[in-house]
Fold each of these.
Amino acid sequence: MSYTPTNERQLIDALGTQHEVAASTARVVSLVPSITELLLDLGLGKQLVGRTGFCIHPRDAVKKVSKVGGTKSIDVAKIRRLAPTHLIANIDENPRSVVQELAKFVPHVVITHPIVPEDNLKLYRLLGGIFSREDEAQALAEKFRAALAEVRSASEAWGRQQVIYLIWKSPWMTVSRDTYISRMLAAVGWDTFEVRSDARYPTIELTAEQLRSVSFVLFSTEPYSFSERHLVDLLDTMPLGQKTRCALIDGSMTSWYGSRAVKGLAYLRDFRRGLL
């Protein structure tokens, strides 16, 4: 496939802000773990000067980058001292008020908000274009397209199932269908249980009726650190004869976009195949 270099008119972020191609001396702070991983995979390690404590991949590379707090508890003063030219944030993951405060002294703020797996292609194009990594972004896009096509082909053969995907305990919390996680699961043929709520991450009651209506209850390893113990606890509360199955799923493979999405699609394909 031929590739047309990204021009400035195409560099539009999730808020509709148009961005220019950055200088090679750009200093970047990433407040999003999956974006940090993507920037490093695009070869931007020398320009990445700040990241959150939750930005843990790739492990060896992130150790060289200064921490600026968490995704929610951001150290504004430290970011100011780092003097970044670019800040990358996410609508779901970072407090809007803090990002607005940072925008007062960071010249370029790039806002991301992937909702469907295909949004990764826009993300690669955006960041690859801004930071002059078009070739790397194109190579990643080709891998992503191939992975998505393979997953969807497999899911057609397997058919669709309904699942409950848990992200928190006390109270139980799940994901709405209008989330990246839900759309990633849908790609492999899993439709998340629909909760009547306007919240993107609503609370849920695990009633016997709801459990009977789904094929699996998936316990995500993040943001809550679910373990095998939690699966056993839930199974112990199910009525005798209840057929709902439980499984522990790697949350980074469903919720991290960027370069991790390629691995995530392959993981989901193998994960569902293993539960057939």
Amino acid sequence: MRRPALIGAAVLGAIVALGVVLFVARRERADPARCPDGLAAQGFRCCAPGQTLAQGACSGTPASCPSGFETTSRGCVAPARRVRIPGGTLTLSPNDWEAEGVVARTLTVAAFELDASEVTHARWSRCAGCRKLDHPEPGLPVTGVSADEAEQLCLAAGGRLPSADEWLFAAASASVRRYPWGQTGLVCRRASFGLVEGPCAIGADRPELAGARPDGRSPEGVLDLAGNVAEWAREPDGSARARGGSFRSRVAGELKSWAAESAAGPAAHIGFRCAYPPGPH
């Protein structure tokens, strides 16, 4: 008589355990888990206090912005700053089951500096020679520009687009990190990905604020190297490819440090950041 009771208790225990696992998994993917301190989830976006989501944009003057952001009348903006990448040697090999298309090679890059965040509309608007782009949120990364247009802004700032090797080294480093922050841990609070059809949100038609995933920064301090917008980088032959995945990406392989895509031209999910000669150290 006791055996059915024991079996029932075991089944009940298994159901409870499964429920806990599912609860934790859903909580990890839930809206609050993807937004940093100082921003709150509204639909597929992370908006500042005092703002509301309207037609996909965080509208209104923010009452405050997260630490490290500038507060403007139209939204929060990550200020332009540079991070020193020390340079070194990286040995890449296709030993990851998701490293499709990776060719085994060793690359060496000299020290350089890289924008900590993707170039924002606020920064683009200050570029005298750049074409006008109308956008309601100054803190969103610039998209819809060609690699040549992007490089025009970089050149005006004393920089250029990063080379493909520099971009890869910034994301992976000599330790060959799978993701910019480390070997594991692709979750919604570290990267702006899966915002169109999940797993992190539904319905996105644009990226997130540049710098809005501080938990995903690289050890050197570079933000959004995985997700948000893919980024133009120069190949050895002078062409450009977009690297790092975007808010549209859904699978890990699109967000690994070595991920890249060929693009015919400007796209709503492709932005950029600039590289510069190393400053005094």
